Amino acid sequence: MFADRQLVFNHRQSLAEQLRQESDAALSLHLAVVLLVHVYTQCMIHAPGRCVPQIIAFLKQYLPADHHNTLLRCQGIVRITFSSTVLTINQSITTLIQIDKLQRDRVK
Questions:
Q1: CA distance linking residue 1 with residue 3, whole number of Å
Q2: What are the helix (H) ranges across the chain?
Q3: 43: which residues sit within 8 A by CB, 6+ positions away?
């Protein structure tokens, strides 16, 4: 029983430390919601990032409305950032393909 409590405590401390050191918005949100599940339910979970919206919905029953709304705003920011990153990557790939095509045309 003591070993279980120690494991849970260590897991919580580890999550908190990772969150303090994290600079990536998506990973920070992920760590925050996993930590909040742990704080409110005393359960340790391991979930992929794609489950963060479902975890935030689950946390609604435990959090004050303003805290839940803050998580939702953070989730929106992460989505916008991710969409912008994907768009930038796609634009870069398109540009590289065009440059490659131009270079091949010059060689011919």
A1: 5
A2: 2-21, 25-41, 52-59, 65-107
A3: 37
Q: Tokens 């953070």, residue?
A: 74
Extract the tokens encoding 90.
């796609």
Predicted TM-score of the model (pTM): 0.72
Q: Hey, where are the domains in the chain?
A: 2-107
HSE-up of residue 64 (Cα within 13 Å, Cβ side): 2
Closest CA to 30 of 91, 96, 78: 78
**Assigned token pair, 38:** 């742990």
List, for residues 38-91, the tens digit of each pLDDT value. 999 988 899 999 999 999 999 999 999 999 999 999 999 888 887 777 667 767
**CB neighbour burial string for 47-81, b if at least 16 within 10 angstroms, e if fewer:** eeeeebeebbebbeeeeeeeebeebeebbeebeee
Give the separation between CA 46 and CA 10, rounded to whole angstroms. 15
